[in-house]
Amino acid sequence: MINVFQPSLGTEELAAVSEVFESGWLGHGPRTKAFEAAFAEHLGVQPEGVIFLNSCTAGLFISTELLDLGEDDEVVLPSVSFVAAANAVAATGARPVFCDVDPRTLNPRRSDVESAITDRTKAVLLLHYGGYPGEITEIAEMCRERGIPLIEDSACAVASSVDGRVAGSFGDMAMWSFDAMKILSTGDGGMLHVRDPELARRARRLAYHGLEQSSGFAKARVSHRWWELDVRDFARRVIGNDLTAAIGQVQLRRMPEFVQRRKEIVDCYDAELADVDGLVLPPPLPAGHESSYYFYWVQMAASIRDQVAADLYEAGVYTTFRYPPLHRVPAYGAPAELELPGVDHASDTTLCLPLHQGLDDSEVREVVTQVRKAVESRS
Questions:
Q1: How confident is the model at residue 213 (pLDDT cuts 50, 70, 90)?
Q2: What fold does the segment set 255-378 form as a domain?
Q3: Hey, which of 21, 67, 69, 295 has its CA 20 to 30 A from 10?
Q4: Torsion angle, CA of 96/100/103/105, rounded to 10 degrees?
Q5: Counting Cβ atoms within 10 Å, is residue 114 exposed (0-12), middle (13-18) or buried (19+)?
């Protein structure tokens, strides 16, 4: 089966893990700090505000906690988003308010976000769909004008940028995913960036039991009774560790080659699928935009999309749709009469094809052949 996602791990990552084994320090330690610093350099931000966690989801939950949301508050987010984003909002007692998206890019436009804002809006939580930055510049400007905090869910956008500015550096908070399906993978893991220094310090406490000091060993240098507790927040343990951080440092160094290979595959899909009747390819990137090329999505008539996916699966090509619309999930309590035409069109017509740096040329050709065959036979 040709998979949609697949990590690329090799001898460099194994050697880095071996070094951690030899050091005897497996938990949150010097390699974690080094990974945070390297990622901060990648973002162009201060390392004090960058925190390595056990998942991107942990970053989403911490970000909503930092905003001190309550039951009278609302957070605007696109309905085409991962379930963790809506969960992080709903868990605080606040209400997720779902906005529409551009049916082609699957990213919200400024007008989509603006139309969902009310006097109860306490934040906007934006996703960069498939690595496309979308209208992040315009939405960030709008949030600044209105004094509304902006959270960037950059799980898909580890190497995306607009005019040289990295996705995740436009808002007040941002998080990235390093799970097994992502471009940069540590197995599980995520990074959180918090712009405000005081909130960043609180985020670190929230990531480790609410403790002011995450390590008694480090505290021993400044306290004669280093085992005593200093709890500032009631929190959990979601910090990263040196084993996964060591893998992450290697993956971060290799990331440019990963993205380049993914772009080559995207260029091949663009060229080889352009003439397939009934198939719509992703729109071109606007000038100044760079993508991480996390998803490659095609669109077709809703009447054939599901059958095309089934035909491809039978032919050994696994496809999927990310992400099913959240406003259709009863648990979030979206009004039954809510109309999001862009979301509805995209979710009924879109299919994500295999795209990862491990695909070889023969597999890419096989995907092209099978997609062409499946769409033409069903149209």
A1: low
A2: Aspartate Aminotransferase, domain 1 (3.90.1150)
A3: 295
A4: -60
A5: middle
Q: For the residues of 131-176, what is the DSSP string, one character each?
A: G---SHHHHHHHHHHHT--EEEE-TT-TT-EETTEETTSSSSEEEE
pLDDT at 228 over 80: no
Q: What is the pLDDT of residue 212?
A: 79
Q: Any idea which architecture 11-251 has in CATH?
A: 3-Layer(aba) Sandwich (3.40)
pLDDT band at 221 (very low <50, low <70, confident <90, very high): low
This prediction has a pTM of 0.95
User: 185 near 159, Cβ under 8 Å?
Assistant: no
| Domain edges within the chain | 11-251, 255-378
11-251 and 255-378 have identical folds: no
Nearest to 228 by CA among 209, 210, 213: 213
- Residue 220: the pLDDT is 61
Q: Collect all residues with Cβ–Cβ distance below 8 Å to 189 and sequence separation of at least 6.
A: 52, 53, 54, 55, 177, 178, 179, 240, 244, 245, 248
